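ARCHIVE CARD
Drawer: 12
Card no.: 0347
Subject: one protein chain, sequence and derived structure
Cross-reference: see card 0346
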Amino acid sequence: YDDNDSLEDGEPDGAKMDHMLADERASSAAASRPAFVPIKPLLQSWTHTGLEAEVFCVRFSADSTLVAAGLGNGRVKIYQSQTGRHSYTLVTSESGLPATCMRFRPSSASTKTRNVLLTANADGCLQHWHITSGKCLHTIVEPDNQIFAIDYKADGTKFATAGKDYTVRIYDEATKSKVADLSSGFGKKNAGHSNRVFSLRFHPTDENVLLSAGWDNTIQMWDLRTEGSVRSIYGPFIAGDSVDISGNEVVSGSYRATDQLQLWDYRTGDLISTVPWADEREPCMLYAAQFSRSGTLIAAGGAGANEVRVFSRSTSEPLGVVKLAKGAYGIDFSYDSKMLAIAAGDSSVRVVATTP
């Protein structure tokens, strides 16, 4: 037996082999991580900074000529989308609570009044506004609730609300009366939400389907005919307006450090893919995610890394990025998909081109 047979450069063969295997595993893990490649910045059309409060939500009008921005003090500011000129201000809360979500009434709605904006507030107040006159046309109050999400059916005949009390409510647009409560609980045979709801989306082509999501790690798919959840997606942790549907795909943006942006099969609820968010620095936890109206792009943004990215839907490759001083709370594509509006925690609202 020769000691030199078991030693090489002062290290036992077993220990050396362990180090070699560890190096191989580390190299393999590094290779499996998506490499961070610098992303081109998106060209900014205009920006308003130094507003009197954080901007929580943003929305283009149906003809994409206006951009509405909801502030943390209850104000909603209306801008010209092409120039950024400030045109109108609405006061949705006298107590100064945040404007949490907004939707322009679809232009297909069977009414003569145009430029109507539906706003939701953290005080449980829901209001219809006529933008150009600045008049509040109707007010609905949901007692003991904070409304975090609203959405219109594609034809504008109904709208939905949801928030703190786990219940999704359906209203008739013409009468402004509630027509359904969607929830789980005693006497209910179907699943529902067990925590706050932050996102609502009517199916763009199936008038009987509504998607909802929130803090309970589920996306519920409701059939309005039966007033029950017919299918669930399990996994996404939704903390903002970050669920959308296009064709047979659902996109979810989760407020977490990994697997933030995911695509799901609407028909089965199965995961299709996770869109890589490769970055060598701080992760981005998402508050917002949306398909472009053209169906070719996906935009998402949030806090942590404080950025918004636009991706190719077909390849999942990032096409451009907007870096922010604080988190992105809301986004919205224009109807021609050429512009993206961003609501941010640095008290700013901006519009960028969707291609660098």
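Annotation on reverse: The first strand starts at residue 7 and ends at 8. Residues 1-12, 14-22, 25-33 have pLDDT under 50 and may be disordered.
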